Inverse folding.
């Protein structure tokens, strides 16, 4: 079997087209969704993520405010920016690009964001609501993965899902979304990590394997069953002298071999990545609707 490729770019483009219509409808009511972006320091990868997020906002008509701060500012100045954005009625979502430079207290920063503007879904209030099945901002990458599955026609209910990775931003929230008694969930979920004994024993049983380990070739063809759905969250740089940049991006899955055994598979790039930004846009638009009293 050769797998069908899940086209994350196309699915994301379709979702963004729908969001653009929503934003245009809001504009008729005088509402413009606003995202306040904070970037601390000059890490090139963080800069390019922030630029991509702001460009995506522009494309669908979301106002985005750029706050680029020096890595040398003290924590209290960062907190002052967050407090200002918390109070600004033009801003419906606040995003601080992570990771922060080392000397900042990331948890204190996250706790300072108004949970009603926490469009990354990382504030403990939103995490608690997600775990207990209440309406909350869902973290963008895990929610993007679930939307990819749904829009590709994959039945999540009753599926055996194995997630490789237990980080706070991908593995843990994804497991929580997938076990909820909800249209996004009802799966049976196993979460694996570096202390898991015999990873392949788990992945071979899975109807859906989701790799979020951060290492190339973590999932090989021998580790999945015939016809499994394989979602690759990983983004890794590997040296490639044929590329101008000297590297290329690969996921955590041995794509070429796994695609000969899976029924559906996401590529890297062009799979999960475009969905992450799309779900950030979605959360920002939802937040603006909520602030305007248009949602329950
Ligand atoms: P992370 O914080 O480094 O977590 C990696 C997780 O994978 C850890 O729980 C680790 O286990 C587990 N792990 C690593 N190697 C393993 C192995 N060989 N077998 C089993 N478990 C293993 O990474 P993350 O932030 O979750 O990100 C994961 C990957 O997704 C990265 O490549 C990242 O760049 C990518 N990512 C992509 C997007 C996107 O939009 N496409 C968004 C976020 C992240 P322990 O807990 O035991 O250490």
């Amino acid at each position: 079997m050769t797998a069908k490729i899940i086209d994350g770019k196309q699915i994301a483009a379709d979702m963004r087209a729908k969001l653009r219509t929503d934003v245009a409808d809001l504009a008729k009511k005088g509402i413009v969704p606003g995202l306040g972006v904070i970037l601390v320091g000059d890490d090139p990868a963080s800069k390019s993520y922030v630029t991509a997020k702001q460009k995506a906002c522009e494309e669908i008509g979301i106002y985005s405010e750029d706050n680029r701060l020096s890595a040398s500012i003290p924590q209290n100045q960062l907190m002052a920016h967050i407090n200002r954005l918390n109070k600004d009625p033009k801003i419906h979502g606040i995003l601080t690009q992570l990771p922060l430079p080392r000397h900042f207290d990331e948890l204190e920063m996250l706790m300072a964001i108004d949970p009603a503007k926490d469009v990354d879904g990382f504030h403990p209030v939103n995490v608690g609501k997600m775990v207990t099945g209440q309406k909350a901002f869902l973290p963008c990458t895990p929610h993007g993965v679930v939307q990819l599955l749904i829009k590709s026609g994959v039945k999540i209910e009753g599926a055996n899902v194995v997630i490789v990775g237990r980080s706070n931003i991908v593995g843990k929230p994804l497991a929580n979304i997938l076990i909820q008694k909800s249209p996004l969930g009802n799966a049976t979920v196993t979460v694996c990590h570096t202390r898991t004994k015999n990873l392949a024993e788990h992945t071979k049983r899975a109807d859906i394997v989701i790799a979020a380990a951060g290492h190339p070739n973590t999932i090989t063809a021998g580790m999945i069953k015939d016809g499994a759905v394989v979602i690759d969250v990983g983004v890794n740089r590997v040296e490639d002298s044929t590329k101008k940049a000297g590297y290329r991006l690969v996921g955590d899955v041995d794509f070429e071999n796994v695609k000969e055994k899976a029924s559906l598979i996401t590529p890297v790039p062009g799979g999960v990545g475009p969905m992450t930004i799309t779900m950030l846009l979605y959360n920002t638009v939802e937040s603006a609707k909520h602030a305007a009293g248009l949602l329950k």
